[in-house]
Design a protein that fits this description.
Order of helices and strands: HHEHEHEHEHEHEHHEEEHEH
Radius of gyration: 18 Å
Oligomer: single chain
CATH architecture: Alpha-Beta Barrel
Number of strands: 10
CATH topology: TIM Barrel
Shape: globular
Number of domains: 1
Number of helices: 11
Strand content: 15-25%
Length: 293
Amino acid sequence: MNRRTFLQTASAAALLPAAGRMFAAAQATAGSTIRLGAQTNAWKIDPNQLDTFFSVLTQIKQVGYTGFETGFFNLVNVFDAPQATAEQIRSTGLEFVGIHIAIPFDKQDAQTHLPPASLYEKVAHGGKALGAKRLFFSGAPTTTEADVKHKVEGLNAAGRYARDAGLTFAYHNHWWEFQSKVNEIETLYAETDPSVVSFLLDAGHAYRGGANVPDFLRRHSNRLVALHLRDYKAGKQVPLGQGTVPLAEIASTLKSLDWSGWAINEEEREDGTKAGLDYIRPSYKALRDALGA
């Protein structure tokens, strides 16, 4: 490491807590290309009170993460006048990894099982104006091969739109794509256009759906721009590193593949509990320890 690089690294690391500084130094020395981010849905955010959103970003930065992902509903109220909010986001020093669209099944497009174009077009432009680098989607499960075909077509169309808007587009799975009786997850990876459609693999949901996650990574890592990492114990989500998801094996697989992208901790609970730092702090340590060695 030359003197200039050392000074830049030291300046950035001074903003982080001790644990974050140690990990940042390890990354700089090793030249790691895996970056750590957090999804904001571990916290309760009021879209009508923007300070609640920025309070979350402050906590994410203090823990040691370098990027964040958030649901579109947290920022939809500023899409029409994004400049001030975009500048405030930039001032945090966090990368806006991606803006995510997840909506109830009955709000999805009936043919594609995806968010409708009228929504994702608005979110793509709003997210881009706020500094987001990527547009993430979740979709409803399919039940027939024809449904999967329509979903592939819908993802390709969304990917082209996102590309033209200046965003990378990626599809986010849940467990149901892995439990599909029509081989949905493998079909989506095989038949979508890789020039416009990437994937955000939710490794925790994949594990819950019965997948061998390290094997899936070995077969599909070239399509992944990001991972969601979460953990389960006895069927319930627990802070990362406290359950049975094979985090160490996932981490070693990523290293062996020389994978480059965002590892994003997502701490959400099906009962709606929003425990924020109580989840995020131990999860960050588990993620940092697994990937930082």
